[in-house]
Amino acid sequence: MDPFLFQLLLPLLGLILVIALLKVMFEIVLPDLLAGWANNHKFKEGEKWRSDRELLQWLRKMKPSEFEIYIAELLKRLGYSTWAVGKSHDGGIDVEIEKDGVKSYIQCKKYVSSSVSVGEVRDFYGAIADKLAQGKAYFITTNKFTLEAERFAADKPIELIDGQSLIKYVKMAYKDGELITQTSNKTCTKCGNDMVERSGRRGKFLGCSTYPKCRHTESIE
To answer: Does the predicted TM-score (pTM) go above 0.70?
Structure first.
């Protein structure tokens, strides 16, 4: 190429490269960052000021895809690198996690009344058994497992996490919000509903049981 022509085209090539990079930033990187922030904010708001029963009901109202993303975010807060892979992955793997160089695999079932059957656990384990040389498998549900499913998993590197166990993981990961510790015999002076004792960053206090509808709080005397 003629050196003079090359000098003329060089600024144009640089401009095209900048436009391409901006296109990637605004169409791919930025939307992913905003979506991640929105999900994280939504999940933290949903966890605030809930009893175990309320928290479990909130989880059960999620869409299956939302539940998978929530589990990925939850494990991230517990120190894992996480990837919500969902339907893009074979073998029923919804979330992949890694810590200290060891990768593990998770299947999520957002059930309200159905129990996870032994067939579902067996199928998941059969699909990922060859991947578990060092790692572990986790089957997480918002409800419970059948007795047969629990017996099947008893001697295998797969941990079954039911709804009540999941709540314990949520509490382990919780850092910024408040959790209900016990009920109270006091009534909210703002809306007339019951007050409950909560525990937050500033210690224990009383908050309205209808939060976030009513945000009234009182100090514990």
So the answer is: no
pLDDT digits (tens, 9 = 90+) for 77-117: 888 899 888 765 556 899 999 988 889 999 999 999 999 99
Q: Which residues pair with 104 in a beta bridge?
A: 97
Going through the chain in order, the beta strands assigned E by DSSP cover: 81-84, 95-99, 102-109, 115-116, 137-141, 144-145, 158-161, 179-187, 194-200, 203-208, 217-219
Task: State how far the alpha carbon of 151 is from the alpha carbons of 93, 158, 159, in Å.
Answer: 21, 11, 12
First to last CA, the chain: 84
Question: DSSP 3-state helix, strand, coil percentages of the chain (rounded to 5)?
Answer: 45, 25, 30
For residues 66 and 184, give the distance between their C-alpha atoms in angstroms, rounded to a whole number: 33
The span from the CA of 111 to the CA of 159, in Å, is 17
CA 144 to CA 60: how far, in whole Å? 12
Cα 18 off chain centre by: 36
User: What does the pLDDT read at residue 176?
Assistant: 44
Closest CA to 91 of 116, 65, 124: 124
Spatial separation of the C-alpha atoms in residues 43 and 193, rounded to whole Å? 25
